């Protein structure tokens, strides 16, 4: 894996996180300002339209901010709206005291609505990103399969496979070690289960990170095996701290190893001995 590819991947992920954080922060700030403005503008009308309608209008502001900005924007706007509603529209005016229990409930429900809608918006956006990522991953594997079918050189296929694994698993780096070499004592062997179960790992405990189970911090190895279960080589995976790997991406990573296996098997002229951890397909 070239330094340029790794740099581009890190820059892409960092830029995406920065843009998302900036957008959510702007929506949260905007929602809070709008909530305060609405609370103040409705102050002269509170006796005319009623406190209940004021609460509903402020809740609409909260819902809008939560839908646009997700968790942070929803929670921030909800808290500010509840405080503004309390200070401007509930007796005693100009304080944060609340005399009636039903008014306490109104403020609490306003915050709950903001948090709930923000969470739903976050889940919807995350599901959209996941769907887009799944389609991109399937397209990667299909292109790699086409390259294999076209008889592209082994070095070119390995370079493409390592790039695909970096993208699929969110790795910092990925390299291929050819042959049935002894396992690196500093690298944990990982079996990416085709059925979607969490990776089976020897002598380590997996943690759940952002998006799924994290690969071992010390690194991991993904075996490439032949038709008889013999080891053709392994991809050495260097994970990104805190980045989880979900079921679909684990399955696609296993398919990447399977797709490239026939080419490596045909190109290998040295005898290969079965690895004790390998499995027959």
Q: Quote the distance from N terminus to C terminus.
A: 27 Å
Globular, elongated, flat, extended or rod-shaped: what is the shape? rod-shaped
What is the percent of helical residues? 55-70%
Mean pLDDT: 80
Number of domains: 2
In short:
The protein has 281 residues and is α+β, with helices and mostly antiparallel strands. It has helices spanning 3-41, 46-49, 51-89, 101-149, 154-169, 247-267; strands spanning 171-178, 188-191, 200-201, 208-209, 212-214, 220-225, 231-239, 244-245.
Verbal overview:
By secondary structure, the protein is of the alpha+beta class. The chain folds into two domains: 125 residues, no CATH class; 112 residues, Beta-Lactamase (2-Layer Sandwich). 60% of the residues lie in helices and 13% in strands. It is built from six helices and eight strands, in the order H-H-H-H-H-E-E-E-E-E-E-E-E-H. The strands form two sheets. It has a five-stranded mixed β-sheet. Strands 4-5-8 form a three-stranded antiparallel β-sheet. Helix 3 packs across helix 4, helix 4 runs antiparallel to helix 5 and helix 4 packs parallel to helix 6. The chain is rod-shaped and about 85 Å long. It starts with a helix and ends in a 14-residue tail after the last helix. The N terminus and C terminus are likely disordered.
Provide the fold topology:
Blueprint: H1 3-41, H2 46-49, H3 51-89, H4 101-149, H5 154-169, E1 171-178, E2 188-191, E3 200-201, E4 208-209, E5 212-214, E6 220-225, E7 231-239, E8 244-245, H6 247-267
Parallel strand pairs: 2-6
Antiparallel strand pairs: 1-7, 2-3, 4-5, 5-8, 6-7
Helix pairs in contact: 1-3, 3-4, 4-5, 4-6, 5-6
């Amino acid at each position: 894996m070239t330094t340029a590819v790794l740099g581009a991947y890190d820059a892409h992920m960092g830029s995406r996180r920065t843009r998302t954080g900036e957008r959510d922060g702007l929506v949260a700030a905007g929602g809070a300002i709008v909530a305060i403005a609405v609370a103040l503008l409705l102050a002269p009308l509170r006796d005319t339209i009623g406190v209940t309608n004021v609460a509903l209008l402020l809740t609409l502001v909260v819902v809008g901010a939560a839908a646009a900005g997700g968790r942070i924007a929803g929670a921030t706007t909800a808290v500010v709206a509840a405080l503004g509603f309390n200070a401007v529209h509930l007796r005693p005016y100009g304080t944060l005291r609340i005399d009636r229990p039903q008014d306490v409930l109104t403020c609490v429900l306003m915050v709950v609505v903001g948090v709930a809608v923000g969470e739903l918006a976050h889940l919807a956006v995350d599901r959209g990103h996941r769907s887009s990522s799944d389609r991109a991953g399937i397209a990667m594997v299909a292109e790699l399969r086409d390259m294999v079918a076209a008889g592209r050189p082994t070095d070119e296929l390995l370079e493409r496979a390592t790039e695909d694994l970096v993208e699929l698993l969110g790795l910092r780096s990925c390299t291929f070690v050819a042959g049935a070499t002894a396992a690196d004592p500093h690298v944990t062997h990982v079996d990416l289960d085709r059925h979607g179960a969490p990776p089976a790992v020897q002598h380590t405990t997996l943690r759940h990170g952002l998006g799924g189970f994290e690969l071992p911090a010390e690194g991991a190895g993904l075996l490439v095996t032949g038709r008889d279960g013999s080891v053709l080589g392994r991809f050495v995976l260097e994970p990104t701290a805190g980045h989880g790997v979900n079921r679909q991406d684990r399955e696609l990573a296993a398919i990447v190893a399977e797709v490239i296996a026939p080419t490596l098997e045909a190109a290998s002229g040295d005898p290969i001995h079965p690895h004790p951890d390998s499995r027959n397909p």
